[in-house]
Amino acid sequence: MTERAFTAIPRPIERSRTARFFEAWPPLTLLAMAWVALMLVVALGADWLAPYHFAALDLKARLQPPILFGGTWRHALGTDELGRDVLSRLIVSIRISVLIALFGTLIAATLGTTLGFVAAHFRRSVEWLILTLIDFQASMPFLIIALAVLAFFGNSLVLFVCLMGLNSWERYARIARGLTLSANEQGYAGAIRQLGASSWRIYGLHVLPNIASTLIVSMTITFPETILLESGLSFLGLGVQPPLSSLGNMVGYGREYITRASWILLFPSAVIILTTLSISILGDWLRDRLDPTLR
Amino acid sequence: MNAPLDAPLVQAENLVRHYRVRRGGRLFGEHATLRAVDGVSFALQAGRTLGLVGESGCGKTTTARLVLGLLTLTAGTIRVDGEILPGAGTARWRSLRQVMQMVFQDPLAALDRRVAVGRQVMEPLAIHGIANAGERRERALAILHSVGLQAHHFDRYPHELSGGQRQRVVLARALILSPRLLVCDEPISALDVSIQAQVVNLLLDLQAERGLAYLFISHDLRMVRQVSHEVAVMYLGRIVEQGDPDLLFAAPAHPYTQALVSAIPVATERGRKRLILKGDPPNPVSVPPGCAFHTRCPMAVARCRAETPALRLLDDGRRVACHLAPGMADA
Amino acid sequence: MMRYLAGRLLRAMLTIFLVVTFAFFVLRLSGDPALLIMSVDAPPESIAAFRQSWGLDQPVWVQYLAYIGHALTGDLGNSMRDGRPAIQLVVERIPATLAITVPAFLLKIAIGVPAGIYAALHRNSLADRLTMVLSVAGFTMPSFVLALLLVLLFAVRLGWLPSSGADGIAYAILPIVTLGAAGAAILARFTRSAMLEVLGQPFIRAASAKGLPWRRVVAEHALPNAAIPTTTIIGFMVGTLIAGAVVVESVFAWPGVGRLLVVAVANRDLAVVQAILLLVAATMVSANIAVDLLYGWIDPRMRQVPR
Q1: List of chain A residues whose C-beta atoms are within 8 Å of the C-beta of residue B20
Q2: Cα separations (Å) of B145 from B176, B178, B206?
Q3: Cβ <8 Å between A255 and C214
Q4: pTM for this prediction
């Protein structure tokens, strides 16, 4: 903000309808929405969309390049060292990565919000305990905690999804606790409790709807984080285990062929970046619309 | 144990609410006691209004919350219809919500901004399982009408209403359970001056129609004088003067009341003796010994620093806690 | 201030204690290490001997106390794979990790802070937008993707730099750039928003309204105030140095603590994992305390003794 800030006077400008439309729905946001929608469709319809079974071998067509790089439509995004279709593997990997991130985010939001309510409701030692856990979680890089848990417990898909759900629960807990405390202190929650309402009614029917928009905006922050965490662990070979495949697995596998067949790792990399980027853009737009007070 | 027929609706005896606070300074600072309310007694008859006045921080709001059972008492008793007030959250406390209700200072904060006001007015009926959905709506419309709102306000959201209309909604929500006591915590101080009179008149009309008792908390002395049958002046958690509002405001007996009364702006300023208080009230963590007011009292004598004055009955029926009040020289 | 610091130290110790306890119980819950290490068909006598030598035949609380006692003396047990003390294995790797994380850290600050300040002072300019685009990319691009893209460009296509290993300075360049670039993006974004926040404050308007040249307003009023939140995030980055290196060290086969952790996790070498867990916790906690101390120096408000 320079000197311009003092002289700028808002001027009413005549704008066309299209200009106004794009003001409310910026083109970048529309693109991001389209991409996220595509990812959801792919995640849900992977079985119908994949041209081949993701593990099907085509030994006659190994390390085929994608089209535009000398490949054929038979394998539009090329094949890997075993002749497996990259497009089919990509589609199945998108499904795994998106579903893990989705469930992880939902688990984190549910767990964190519940703990936040519990802390704000009971106060005293319960609150102290939850705040200590929040501090602990915030002071340790989650990647390290996740690695430790994987080392101690071994790996299974269920455990892995739950682990992703432990990532950033503390963000929701903080938000839920803070907003509940202020609602209890002076606001509507105290007023409704005073009417004789049960805690279920207060938190379920009043507090939750009021903080929902803030929670949803937080989910757009933690969802990409979860995708990055999952793909990072899978890349290291410590996340999703073969024969299942996630985007991180694909990149990790493609690393072996970086000199000969870089497309194997480039496509999943691009999908990771575009997905996290799209959700971040959507999140910024949602935050401006729903909750301008957040950050 | 039957209460006598003329038993007061609310009988508060020696209410005490202390908070343990930690004083800064050292690692585990020593604990100190904050005396938010320190021995307050009063009785409120059905259909009457008790005004509670004092500077902010004097314990008015804490007293209100104690009366509603929202805070637990450190000591003392509150009886409602002769029955000792049960602890917050118990089933009996919940059912008592149908007897006592609250009106808040900031109506926008007291309402859920995501729920249409009509549904919020119906909510107490849902909470207490009264009537079916259709009847609830009927009753809500009726009560909205009686606080001066129309049917088309039913589906509005709080932010779509004016401040006065919101306070009417809060009133409607409190009244739909047909309570007999309404605790009004600064019900008009967040409203525009032009709206204040309307809301006060509404409160007076409702009292006449429904025989409501009000515990009316305000720092606006003129409003309190207008609505109250009895007034209690609080200073640092204690009542320092209590009695008929006309008597009390015409000839305040306690120096603190005199200071409050002389701070009321009047049209004829000339020749009026003004008593201006110096400084802020002391920290309620370290209430001065003797009369708590002696640090700011222009008339304080040695005795005020040593001896806490008790609340005594004057000849004209009011009570004053001051060694120097007229008619008390013998004490 | 002293009281505040004492409280912080207490919390720090509590965090470390929690990590140790967490590690211990998760360790014991995760199954019988004897069966994990020894093959299933090992003779019962040797399994019993193994248990005895590791203290696994004692009650859990005895094991816990012994564990705490050993941890306090720096004994975290031996690596279950090669039998050497876990702490020694970890300490050996620290110099390699520092060799890439410290230069990367300096790179982050050298690029991120000036870029953020410049972007904030020239809001909506081309440079500002470019900074923002790059910083968003830094947020959304996983470090392993960035690392592989750099390998693809500089090692595979151009052949200027080696793609992995640790045989000299040339090998450290790509890991340092990978680590530095992502951190610089985050820091630039953060510095920019901290600067914008300060520039929007009334005292900045007051300073420029009283006729102070803009340059001096920025230097004397805006920068010192924006430094406070920026220091926090930099301090936090110190704490994440090891964690951040995990992925990058693995990609470049750099023999640091991060790679040791990944290998230990894959081999389920629990003693080593615990030692690294403690090392990370200690780093994080010390970094946080250092930030608190720095506050006292940067922020004059903290110098006053709180009531």
Answers
A1: none
A2: 12, 15, 12
A3: no
A4: 0.77
